[in-house]
Design brief:
The chain is an alpha/beta fold and 341 residues long. The protein has helices spanning 14-26, 39-42, 55-62, 76-85, 100-113, 127-138, 167-170, 174-190, 297-311, 320-340; strands spanning 5-10, 29-35, 50-52, 66-69, 89-92, 117-119, 144-154, 194-202, 214-221, 226-232, 234-246, 249-254, 266-272, 288-292. The chain binds nicotinamide-adenine-dinucleotide.
């Protein structure tokens, strides 16, 4: 019989709800309680659950096997560390706090407790990314030598008031919020650690914000693979594009299937280099494209976590190490930009 994991969710905003539904679909989680500090959120909880406004009381009273942390960045380290120390397995949203120090604090407790901990680097579970990784691993296109990514969104009329732009709560702007996903993907797909060579972080339009609206960075691995990222709120639409240049071909990831459907259709296109123009079209090699219209990323993520907790399978994506390494990159980009400013 399938083990049901007694679970609580801390923070029931956008991500809390997404995780709740994925856990329900999975069937292996027994969600007992939800905690949120906002009364309007507590009033709209699904039926049959205990409802808390204080996360410590929620964890202490429920003594769950699993704690799902979907509160704001500022709260993540404290809640994650507390839950781990209480012997709970933890699934936490990214980023692992506001700073690298936060991530390292979590890492220390994690190392001491030796309990399952996974972070929500969700993009690795998107179909286009899974196909890209498989293509790279197959060797068909040779080795990945260069990757460039654009991750852009449009801030809405309330953007300036969002907690994401309150540095005290978020710790950083669009780079820490969204760019961190792309940096994680770049590390994953290149298969090497990235080091920051240069970076510019600025407020080009949203001048009143204390967090950046734009970040551009150049990075390199020890194997001299190159990466560039543009993370921006000035795209004025939602956009996700990644190009991967390989020794024998090319991969493009375009669009990302999200709940809002605003990043466009998700697709992967690849081609092999064709220097002899066997296709008859030098500069226009034969391309192969796959499009996806279903997003199973949240389900796959909750399944990996479930298997780790119940069957001691290793966490492959969103490990503590992934969390610290990507936080290191974000911190280095911020530091480099500060020095120049
Ligand atoms: N994995 C992803 O793809 C992804 C996407 C978006 C956001 N996130 C991350 O998820 C987290 C939440 O983001 P969101 O978009 O759901 O924000 P949100 O504002 O929609 O939800 C956050 C919720 O946490 C609650 N909260 C704040 N402090 C709390 C506390 N002390 N105790 C209990 N509840 C508290 C808020 O009231 C709110 O309801 C952030 O860390 C964010 O970076 C991850």
């Amino acid at each position: 019989m399938e083990t049901k994991l007694s679970s609580v969710i801390i923070g029931f905003g956008i991500m809390g709800r997404i995780r709740y539904h994925a856990m329900q679909r999975h069937g292996g989680y027994e969600i007992r309680a939800i905690c949120d500090i906002r009364s309007e959120v507590r009033e709209q909880m699904p039926d049959g659950l205990f409802v808390y406004s204080d996360w410590r009381t929620c964890i202490d009273e429920q003594e769950p096997k699993v704690v799902i942390v979907c509160a704001v960045n500022k709260m993540i380290p404290e809640i994650v560390c507390y839950a781990l120390k209480r012997g709970c397995a933890v699934f936490s949203e990214k980023p692992p706090g506001r700073t690298l120090e936060d991530a390292l604090k979590i890492q220390k407790v994690y190392n001491e407790c030796g309990i399952t901990l996974k972070f929500g680097f969700n993009h690795r579970y998107h179909n286009s990314v899974i196909e890209a990784k498989a293509l790279l691993d197959s060797g068909l296109l040779g080795e990945a030598v260069c990757v460039r990514g654009v991750y852009g969104k449009a801030g809405n009329e309330h953007f300036a008031e969002e907690w994401r732009n309150n540095k005290e709560i978020s710790g950083g702007g669009i780079l820490l919020d969204q760019g961190i996903h792309m940096l994680d993907l770049m590390r994953y797909l290149l298969g090497s650690e990235l080091y920051v060579k240069s970076g510019i972080v600025n407020n080009l339009v949203w001048k009143e914000l204390e967090t950046e609206d734009s970040a551009i960075a150049l990075l390199e691995t020890e194997r001299h693979q190159i990466a560039s990222i543009h993370s921006s709120v000035l795209q004025w639409r939602h956009k996700f594009d990644m190009d991967i240049l390989c020794t024998n071909g090319y991969i493009a990831l375009n669009g990302l299937l999200t709940n809002s459907k605003s990043y466009g259709e998700e697709s992967i296109t690849y081609y092999k280099k064709d220097l002899l123009a066997e296709s008859g079209k030098l500069g226009r090699p034969k391309e192969h494209t796959m499009c996806f219209n279903e997003d199973f990323s949240w389900d796959k993520e909750m399944d990996e976590f479930y298997e780790a907790v119940t069957n001691q399978k290793p966490i492959v994506h969103g490990t503590m190490d992934d969390a610290v390494k990507t936080m290191q990159i974000v911190t280095d980009i911020y530091k480099l930009a500060e020095k120049k400013g």
